[in-house]
Hints:
It is a single chain. The chain is α/β, with parallel strands linked by helices. Helix content is 42%, strand content 17%. The chain is built from 15 helices and 18 strands. Strands 10-13-14-9-8-15-16 form a seven-stranded mixed sheet. The protein has a six-stranded mixed sheet with strand order 5-4-3-6-7-17, sandwiched between helices. Strands 1-2-18 form a three-stranded antiparallel sheet. It starts with a helix and ends with a helix. The relative contact order is 0.13. The active site is at residues 210, 244. GO terms for molecular function: aldehyde dehydrogenase (NAD+) activity. Keywords: NAD, Oxidoreductase. Residues 5-426 form the Aldehyde dehydrogenase domain.
Amino acid sequence: MSAVAQHVADLKATFRSGKTRSYEWRLHQLEQLVKLIDENEEKFVDALKQDSGKSEFSAFAGEILFVRAEAMHAIKHLKKWMKPKKVGSPLFLWPCKSKIQPTPYGVMLIGVAWNFPLHLTIGPLAASLAAGNTALIKPPSMSPAYSALIEELIPQYLDNDAVRVHQPQGPDRDELLRQKYDLILYTGSYHVGQIVMRAAAEHLTPVLLELGGKNPCVIAEDAKLDATANRIIDAKFLNAGQVCVTVDYILVHESIKDALVAKLKEKVEYMFGDNPKESLAYSRIINSHHYERIKGLLSDGDIVVGGQCDPEENYVSPTVLDNVSLDSEVMKDEIFGPILPVVSYKNKQDILDIMARYGKPLCLYIFTENTAFADDLINSTESGSVGINSIMLHMPNHDLPFGGVGESGMGQYHGKYGFDAMSHMRPIVNKPTWLDIKQSYPPIADRDELDQRKKAMRFLMK
């Protein structure tokens, strides 16, 4: 038996034992998650910097702070989430009682992306444990320091019979997706998402796919440019643009394009200084492959600000591109790096036509003071989420779901939405035996009795 098959067999045995179903077990695991984060913050910061050059600020704000809050939110609301929900029953079923009881799926596979590995491990894991599942975590191979650290820490803090970390090697890589899981959550690229979904289909395993896409930021002619530029630059260059929910490109009304471009340049220089390489808030590109890919996109427009590169550090400075062709490489796929192309539009149809080139994005961002403009655009498009005069602010709100639609993913989690997504909502009907009407059963004596029964059923089922 392969290593991964043994992990899955052990996790199934643990789930069948029933130990993960109790409130006490789930609560303790969530409390241990918080302890794991609190006691190892510096280790996580160091590992993330070692793997990808992630700044301490990005590690703290985008990973540590977020997942701690996610686990604490689950702790606070766990008892309420687990409680069966009583629902009504139609008259024709009387007497009976109906309820919906959240039930864990079983063994869950959590596939983690490299750009925010702690965030994308602990966030889903908190929801999975809250729901009473066991979990196999597949950490990102492109983040070896983080992967080694999480593999070391998980068994020190969590129930090792219920949570395992496994980094496949050699033939074991193919074995990972051949196993029969009860639920799979994968965060990463569209193409790997297809592979995961095909593998899941072999066992009819449900999947949650959190993928990416080219997220547009539409800027209307009435937008407040100073605040708009502040919010775009702050969000776009977090983790050197390696964020699936950040802005990919700007669509700005042609009448204000020059003014916006000037503001974007001003804000890049203000936030990151004359030499962004020295900024405490700026990160590096994950590896040389992606460094070369991103560097190759710099020639697809006029560089307004940025464009500096250093291969020894996989460094590309925060860059804004103007005069970008829609047919250029930078406008073909998700950039996933610190390049911000600016494209102009004349009217609403231009916006819709450009967005239609890329499928349904994970996020749509709109900057305007006109509520009617925003509502019209929202009602004319599809996206996983929408931010009006904001970017990425839906992420830390535990009362909002996070997820894509179409090419950007399927399923949603965060907060209670994560608990619900990782639970089977099991309907339960309890009908007492003190009343058992014989006319509910065959035989039906004749046509008159059949007509009478149909009439009664029509009345009761109104």
